[in-house]
């Protein structure tokens, strides 16, 4: 069976946006951009290398006695290693938890959309002879499905501290004039009034609309009691997953730990030139630079993973997750509309809502 990276790429295959779109052309060892953290560490590595060069020059040409015993290095390296391991484990746990919660939100939207569309057939469960959906019921169902997708967009933007209803960006129209547009304004009810200026997040506000649809579906006979309860559980799970991502976003690593880690790194790489100057001479400059590159690089990875919901290359692909879910759900909506409006499926084509 061919690997995913060997198959032809199409714009509409499942998970097209959340997965890597093309195979890597260069070995990762040769990459210095697009995901690398060199821009975060170039300054401290350069400064420590220059400081080492100064120490070597003073030791060789001025004082001649700046060297320290090499045995001091293992004592400090143990502390530095423990701190970096703790930092990276904590940061990656935040990244992994955030990714799982993002997928949980998408899964809940899939489950709710599937249940809503299958149940909204226009036939009450105890009366197979009842009529089809009214226009109001069709519009209500399509509206709530769009609201489900909008919840994912709202979650993504709230985690990036991009508020307003909906978040807008400059985009040129057909005349080349830049106007404010949104990526999901068409999914929101046209009469929606936001309360973000009063402290109410848009994801929670939209979840109230979904909860109201579940209640209406129960009253219409589309959902029986246990099913309506299970749908509410799915909605609660979605809100709970969003709350966990909010916790990650709003709870950074304690500043006391960050301060001490920076100081310990600076102390270790500052002492290292004195411990290597006698044995390595000018070779101490690249050696210290390499050690600083390694240690500050590990620390830089922790910085990148600490808040995984932004736009960095190493962040969670929130845009791709949301877009893939939107495409999946909207395909189901189109098939559902064919079933309830067209009286079935197209010739020679099986439908999922028969």
Written account of the structure:
The chain is mostly helical and 354 residues long. It has a domain at 103-249 and 332-344. Helix content is 61%, strand content 2%. It has 8 helices and 2 strands, in the order αααββααααα. Helix 2 (72-119) crosses helix 6 (255-280), helix 2 runs parallel beside helix 7 (284-306) and helix 3 packs antiparallel against helix 4 (202-220). It is elongated and about 95 Å long. It starts with 37 loop residues before the first helix and ends in a 13-residue tail after the last helix. 25% of the residues are buried.
Q: What's the arrangement of secondary structure elements?
A:
Elements: H1 38-61, H2 72-119, H3 135-159, E1 169-172, E2 178-181, H4 202-220, H5 225-250, H6 255-280, H7 284-306, H8 318-341
Antiparallel strand pairs: 1-2
Major beta sheet, specifics? 2 strands, antiparallel
Q: What percentage of amino acids are in beta strands?
A: under 5%
Q: Runs with pLDDT <50, length 5+? A: 1-7, 124-128
Average pLDDT score: 83
List descriptors.
2 strands; 8 helices; two-stranded antiparallel sheet; 2% strand; disordered N terminus; 354 residues; YneE/VCCN1/2-like; mainly alpha; single chain
